[in-house]
Amino acid sequence: MYRLLSDVSIVEVSSFVASPTAGLYCAQMGAEVVRVDQIGGGLDYDRYMLTAEGRSLAWENLNRAKKSVALDLKSAEGRELCVELARATGQLITNLPEKSFLSHAAVIEGRPDMVSVRIMGWHDGRQAMDFTVNAASGYPLMTGPEDWDAASAPPVNQVLPAWDFITGAYCAFALMAALHHRAATGKGSEVRVPLGDVMMGTVANSGAMAEMLYRGADRPRLGNAIWGALGRDFTSRDGKRFMVAVLTPNQWNAMIAALEIAEPVAALEAETGVEFARSDHNRFVHREALFAIVQHAASRFDYADLSARLGKAGATFERYRTMHEAASDPALVADNPLFGPSPANPSGFAYPAARSLANLGGQPAGDPRPAPYLGQHSEEVLAERLGLASGAIGDLIDRGVVARSDKNEPRKKP
Questions:
Q1: Are strands 9-13 and 91-94 parallel, antiparallel or unpaired?
Q2: Cβ contact 179:8 at 8 Å
C-alpha cells in the first residue's frame, strides 16, 4: 500500500461492488477508509463465494486495508452516529439512496465543506445493477457466434461486473477531483455518479454510440474476432487455444515472421489487390481469408513452439486459460510484483493478495493489508473521530447500537 493519501480519511457506507471498489482504491493509495455496516453485516457481507466457515471471499477482497465500524443502522441512534462520523470526517462514499438518512443535505449540516460521492442506479432515480445496465448497453446482443440469427439469438451476459468496477474507479477519481477543488476554493461538493450514466458514457466515449447512429443499424456479431482489426482465437497442433491481436504494422510483421506465412499472405494480396501491412481496414475486410492462413500455420506447431516463435518475433498473443489456471500461473501471480504475501485474512484462508494496481517507480508498494473483521474498529473510530469516552461506547455496545469485532462469532455456513 502506498502512502500518497495518508492525510485523507473517508467514511464508506456501501454494499456490493462499485462503492466498495471506490473505497478500496483509495485505501490502496494510503487513505484511511472507515467502512460502516449494519451489525451482523450488510447486504453484501455474505456474498458468494463463502468459505466453509461462512466468510465471504468477495467481501474480504473488496474491503482490504479498511477499518470497520458496526452500527445498528436500523435504529435512529445508530443512524445518527453514522451521520456524525461522516460529518466529522468530511468525506463520504456511499451507494445509499439520496433520500435515505445519509442524504447530502443531512451530512452537510454544520459541515459546508463536506464532499460526498454517491453511486446511483439511473440518473432519474430508478434502481440498477451492473447486470441490468449491461442489458441496456447493447453489448450482450453484440456478443456470440457470428452465425447466430440476429432476430432470434439470445443475449450473452458478461461474467465480470465491469460497469461496477469502472464506476468504482470513476468514483475514486471524482472524489479526488472534489477534494482538489475544495483545497483550492474551500467549497464542498455533492458528487452523484449513476451506474447507468457510466455505462452510457463509456459507450459514447468508445465511439460505439456514434457508430450505431452513423450506420443506422447494429454492429453484427463477430464471434471472437476483434472489431475493425485483425484478431481472433486460434488452435495449436496440440489443441491449445490462443489469441493473436494485430493492430500495428509491427504486430503484423511479427505474426508473419513467427508463423512463416509471408508467401500465402503475398498470394492473397495479389488476389485481392490490397496491401495488409499498414491497413487495419484491409485486414479486417479480408479477415476470414487471413484467419484461414493463420489457423493453417498454427496447426503445424505445438503451443510451446508457437509461444516461443511469437514471443521472439514480438507478436501480441496470449494463451486462453481457465480462471483457476490464471490464479495458479507463476508468471501472472507468483512472479508478479502486483501480488504480495497473504495477510491474516478474516477467512483464515491464505492466498496471494493484490497490492495497488498502479506501480509508483521508486516507492515501495508495501505488503497487502487484510480486510477487517466486521466491527473490529468500532471502539477506536468512535473514540478518535467522535471523542466518545469508553463508558459511553460501552453503553452503546450494551444497548446493541454498536458492535465489537465478529472475529469469534459463528458465521452462516454455505
A1: parallel
A2: yes
Q: Does residue 412 surpass a pLDDT of 90? A: no
State which of 304, 319, 334 marks the end of a domain. 319
Query: Is-contact 29 6, C-beta < 8 A?
Result: no
Q: Which of 291, 319, 347 is the last residue of a domain?
A: 319
Q: Across the chain, what does the average pLDDT equal?
A: 96
Using alpha carbons, list the distances in angstroms from residue 268 to 32, 145, 252. 60, 25, 15
For residue 43, give the C-alpha cell: 447486504
Q: What is the CATH number of the domain that holds 289?
A: 3.30.1540.10
Predicted pLDDT of residue 150: 84
329 assigned to active site: no
Q: At which residue does the C-alpha cell 514471443 appear?
A: 311
Catalytic one of 130, 164, 197, 406: 164
What digits encode the pLDDT tens for the residues 156-188?
Answer: 999 999 999 999 999 999 999 999 999 999 999
Closest C-alpha to 82, from 39, 47, 19, 46? 39
> What's the predicted TM-score (pTM) here?
0.94
Place 83 in a pLDDT band, splitting at 50, 70 and 90: very high
